[in-house]
């Protein structure tokens, strides 16, 4: 098949580049432009949207449906490419210029087994944003997650009220629970590509523990299922491909790539957003917004941009010499989904054919807990037969030699354990007032002991899962974790130590521009308008006031769909 040959060639060429790629330390490509003295006029628009990611692409598509509105969409990255459309290559995309390349600052409670105690925090820097480099899983979470947003003071966000917006985007091929899947929308959803040979063992193992196969986006979340994914004809469906591709043909939408927004221009007297400053092609530009500036730069970059523009914690901005316009808890309340990556299992089964064109994340399960929402998700990654091109865990040399080097991609499978509702909180701060510097990311996972305890329960559950007959049939055996030898092997103290060393995240930052009824604890209101500032909204994953028992891409698209309707209703 010529198509398969073409993509195999793309993989070969790009994997070679991945091996030698070095993550950047700052936004080097914009430094020249940041030193330009002249500011050029980029004209007037009704809406200026910052960031063409999961939220920004959807917003631009929906708002440009109104022909009378002139819209400017500014994106720091470039276009998607052939490599980024191949589902199984998602992890490798981190070692290319379509990842911003962030690392956390050195951590005290977590990431202890990583190089320099830093976890990686990839973010998409391209049309489609993080949906262009993500693992393409479509997982909405639990209805109670959204009802919780209402309980936190945000009317309009109950599951009943947001479900229509999930359905609106979808063209679902999933044979799931009736009433929970949309047809005819722009975004294709289908099950992950052909099942691996151990998929049925995974489902059967769950069954042995009383967990049936479920549609996790349907009536019941507790149980196990094949992953629902954003794939169409074997290719990634980023929001750039699924939504923006059509809207870009509209004359009222101007999409500018390789443009770094450096400031939201705010009239200090009226406390009203007037436009933006950005850098493109080594030049500085200013564009004006008649109706609104909408910040959709993601859960790290949106708070960075707000703080650079004078909106943020008073003390922090003062210490950096930034004039304060509005004192809001920007960058606080950072939530993540910690993920333990130390459960690999050797089997007596060897994959025969390598399958570089499959999607590597195959199936997930949700562990029941005492509450209405699952405390733990577990993700099944079967053997691929192809070793990954780099260490996405960022393990230090000791772990790389003593652990990673032992994993065999033909015989071993992984089950990643995810803590869904952490109590610990991190934060985003500015390194300096220079917009070409990266923001400072402090994850602070596992500050709260309760998080560690729940995580250990999840690990023990997954080990029990692999001790069922279904996994004994392939002789699944936990691969030795060679660290934390000072503790009794597999005791709770041992697991705590392993968790603090070997956990990374599922790359689900949110909460840094949280919605809520007032500016002491929240940044935006329930219509995502920034408290205290006119004509300014934040619309992206950062606005989630609490996280969801799922993955963040689908909820972010839902948020953008819903706010597009709110905006249309406001001005029409
Ligand atoms: C490696 C990885 C795997 C993931 N896997 C999954 C998964 O399988 N399923 C799932 O549901 N979720 C997954 N996620 C998470 C999900 O993709 C994100 O939560 C979601 O895409 C966030 O959308 P957003 O609109 O908030 O931000 P983004 O999609 O990141 O969009 C922000 C956009 O703004 C641009 N931008 C930022 N700053 C500026 C600036 N100053 N000027 C101009 N442009 C700017 C960025 O380049 C980017 O395009 C994953 C994420 C990653 C990184």
TrEMBL record:
Q: Which residues fall in a coiled-coil region?
A: none
Please give the SUPFAM superfamilies that the UniProt record associates with this protein. Answer: FAD-linked reductases, C-terminal domain, FAD/NAD(P)-binding domain
**Glucose-methanol-choline oxidoreductase N-terminal domain sequence ranges:** 124-147, 298-312
**Alphabetized Pfam families for the sequence:** GMC_oxred_C, GMC_oxred_N
- Active site, UniProt feature: 508, 551
Tell me what gene encodes this: AUGUSTUS-3.0.2_07608
Q: Which domain of life is it from?
A: Eukaryota
Q: Which UniProt keywords apply?
A: FAD, Flavoprotein, Signal
- The name this protein carries in UniProt is Glucose dehydrogenase [FAD, quinone]-like Protein
The UniProt record gives the binding positions of FAD as 261
- Organism classification: Eukaryota, Metazoa, Ecdysozoa, Arthropoda, Hexapoda
For the keyword Flavoprotein, the answer is yes
Q: Which cofactor does it need?
A: FAD
Family to which the UniProt record says this protein belongs: Belongs to the GMC oxidoreductase family.
Gene3D superfamilies per the UniProt record, alphabetical: FAD/NAD(P)-binding domain (3.50.50.60), Glucose Oxidase, domain 3 (3.30.560.10)
What organism does the UniProt record list as the source? Answer: Tribolium castaneum (Red flour beetle)
Question: What does the record give under GO molecular function?
Answer: flavin adenine dinucleotide binding; oxidoreductase activity; oxidoreductase activity, acting on CH-OH group of donors
């Amino acid at each position: 098949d010529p198509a398969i040959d073409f993509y195999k060639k793309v993989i070969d060429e790009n994997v070679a580049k991945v091996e030698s790629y070095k993550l950047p330390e700052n936004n080097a490509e914009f430094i020249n432009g940041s030193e330009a003295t002249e500011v050029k006029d980029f004209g007037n628009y009704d809406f200026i949207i910052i960031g063409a990611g999961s939220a920004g692409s959807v917003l631009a598509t929906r708002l440009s449906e109104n022909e009378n509105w002139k819209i400017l969409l500014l994106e720091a990255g470039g276009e998607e490419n052939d490599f980024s459309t191949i589902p199984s290559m998602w992890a490798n995309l981190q070692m290319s210029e379509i990842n911003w390349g962030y690392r956390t600052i050195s951590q005290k409670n977590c990431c202890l087994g990583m190089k320099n105690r830093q976890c990686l925090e990839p973010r998409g820097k391209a049309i489609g944003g993080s949906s262009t480099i993500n693992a393409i899983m479509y997982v909405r979470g639990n209805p109670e997650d959204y009802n919780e947003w209402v309980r936190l003071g945000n009317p309009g966000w109950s599951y009943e009220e947001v479900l229509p917006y999930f359905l609106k985007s979808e063209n679902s091929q999933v044979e799931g629970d009736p009433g929970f899947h949309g047809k005819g929308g722009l975004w294709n959803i289908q099950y992950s590509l052909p099942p691996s040979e151990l998929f049925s063992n995974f489902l059967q193992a769950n069954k042995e523990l009383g967990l049936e196969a479920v549609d996790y986006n349907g009536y019941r979340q507790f149980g196990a299922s094949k992953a629902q994914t954003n794939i169409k004809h074997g290719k990634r469906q980023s929001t750039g491909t699924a939504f923006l591709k059509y809207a870009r043909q509209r004359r009222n939408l101007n999409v500018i790539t390789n443009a770094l927004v450096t400031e939201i221009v705010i009239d200090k007297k009226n406390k009203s957003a007037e436009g933006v400053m950005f850098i493109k092609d080594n030049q500085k530009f200013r564009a004006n917004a008649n109706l609104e500036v909408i910040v959709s730069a993601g859960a790290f970059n949106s708070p960075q941009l707000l703080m650079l523009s004078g909106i943020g914690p008073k003390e922090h901005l003062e210490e950096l010499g930034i004039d304060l316009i509005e004192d809001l808890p920007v960058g606080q309340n950072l939530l993540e989904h910690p993920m333990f990556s130390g459960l690999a299992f050797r089997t007596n089964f060897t994959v025969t054919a390598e399958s570089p064109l499959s999607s590597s994340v195959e199936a997930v399960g949700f562990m029941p807990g005492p509450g209405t929402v699952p405390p733990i998700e577990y993700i099944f990654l079967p053997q691929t037969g192809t070793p990954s091109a780099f260490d996405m865990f960022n393990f230090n040399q000791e772990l790389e030699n003593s652990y990673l080097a032992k994993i065999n991609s033909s015989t071993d499978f992984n089950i990643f354990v995810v803590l869904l509702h952490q109590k610990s909180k991190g934060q985003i701060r500015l390194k300096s007032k220079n917009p070409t510097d990266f923001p400072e990311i402090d994850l602070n996972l596992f500050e709260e002991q309760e998080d560690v305890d729940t995580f250990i329960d999840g690990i023990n559950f997954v080990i029990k899962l692999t001790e069922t007959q279904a996994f004994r049939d392939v002789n699944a055996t936990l691969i030795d974790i060679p660290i934390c030898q000072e503790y009794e092997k597999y005791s709770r103290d041992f697991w705590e130590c392993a968790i603090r060393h070997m956990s990374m995240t599922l790359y689900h930052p949110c909460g840094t521009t949280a919605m809520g009824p007032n500016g002491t604890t929240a940044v935006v209101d329930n219509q995502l308008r920034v408290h205290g500032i006119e004509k300014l909204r934040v619309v992206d994953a950062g606005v989630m006031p609490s996280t969801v028992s799922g993955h963040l891409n689908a909820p972010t698209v839902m948020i953008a769909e819903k706010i597009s309707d709110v905006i249309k209703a406001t001005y029409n």
